[in-house]
Amino acid sequence: MPVLSHLHQLFNADQCQAYIRTLRWKERPLQCPRCQSHHIGQWGTYQYRPGCKRYWCHSCKRTFNDLTATLLHRSQRPLSYWILATFLLCLACSSRRIARELGIHIRTSYRWCWWLRNAAVSYEMHRQLAGTVEADDLYQTAGNKGQAKQGGKKALGHRPRGRRKQRAPGRGHYDKDRPALIAWVSRQGTVVIQATKDCTVQTVQTAADLAGRAGSRLYTDSASSYRAVKGSVHEFVKHTQKAYARGDGHENRAACLFSLLKPYLRVCRGVSKCNLPGYSGFFPFLRNFRQHKAFEQAALILQAALDPAIARRARRGECVACFDHLNLLQTARN
Ligand SMILES: [Zn+2]
User: Fold this and answer.
1) How far is the CA of 66 from the centre of ligand 1 (A)?
2) Distance of alpha carbon 267 from its chain centroid, rounded?
């Protein structure tokens, strides 16, 4: 077998464990994940898991280790798999690709990818933009991939979804398999992307309140939903009149962001509309930490995944549900 056929075999188990321990207790005091007590003592190590330390909680009289109550807890796979999977996820690999590179089952890697994506979204949940902000919308073709109309698994022999079907002209809608993505891009470079059912005045106003602080300057195109947005100084360019920039007022950054988002989504080969908030929620993390290398981004995700509170929500898929406000897109995934 070639040496590089599976990269994780080159990882040292002890070093991985030490790395995970550093991340686990970085900026967090050593405390019991069950009763939050700080009265902790050492309680030996594991024979079958070299380097993993065990602790004794004097309050609830139970033991725990570096992985208890985190996303990596009770995983059958060694830590090197997790570290590499997170790294590959930051390189925008699909779950199928990660499964192949690591040599794990596709369902394992699919589950891991969702958990890690949800953990990454915790960095983006409360992000608000200030200063000059540009906004634009995109209608992403997304159907019911993998799901029957009434929910649950699709029976075999179903009609193909028709990903390349002719799109109806005009605005998309969730019910027409073309939900909207609204992007808010600050001139400082930070971005917020929201997956919504439609792009009506009410939706855009809700999205604007969530994305930006009041009093910021807003540049958009001349769509009526944006013109009704309150709470910020607003200027727009009329694309219908072939006007794309007027002095400082343009929304080219937001349009450019979509040119990066589209190839990112294409890797996932046809996103289901109930999974769209998850995929489009992870992308702003990659964008907002684009000054970091992929390994540094992976360290951030792992650090979030090692937080018991975030891990609990990430397993249930609740981090993404923060995008679910009013008529913003429902997340049916768990
Ligand atoms: Zn305890």
Assistant:
1) 14
2) 15
* Strand stretches in the chain, DSSP E: 40-45, 53-57, 62-65, 132-139, 180-186, 191-196, 217-221, 233-237, 245-246, 249-250
As a whole number of angstroms, the distance between CA 18 and CA 22 comes to 6
Under the banding of pLDDT at 50, 70 and 90, the label for residue 40 is very high
pLDDT for 188-244, tens place per residue?
A: 999 999 999 888 998 899 889 888 887 789 999 999 999 998 888 888 999 889 889
How far is the centre of ligand 1, averaged over its atoms, from the C-alpha of 7 (Å)?
A: 37
Distances 314 to 120, 138, 257 between C-alpha atoms, Å = 9, 27, 26
**What residues form DSSP beta bridges with 27?**
none
CA of 64 to the centre of ligand 1 (A): 8
- pLDDT tens, residue by residue, 275-331: 888 999 999 999 999 999 999 999 999 999 999 999 999 998 886 654 454 345 443
For residue 22, how many other CB atoms are within 10 A of its CB? 12
Please give all residues whose CB falls under 5 A of ion ligand 1, grouped by chain where several chains appear: 32, 34-35, 37, 57, 59-60
- Mean per-residue pLDDT over the chain, rounded: 86
7 HSE (CA, 13 A, CB side) = 14
User: If you measure from the C-alpha of residue 151 to the centroid of ligand 1, how many angstroms do you get, rounded to a whole number?
Assistant: 41
pLDDT in tens, 102-126: 999 999 999 999 999 999 999 998 8
Cβ-contact 214, 220 below 8 angstroms: no
Distance from residue 28's CA to the centre of ligand 1 (Å):
16
Quick one: three-class SS letters along 8-66? HHHCCHHHHHHHHHHHHCCCCCCCCCCCCCCCEEEEEECCCCCCCEEEEECCCCEEEEC
DSSP conformational letter for 322: G
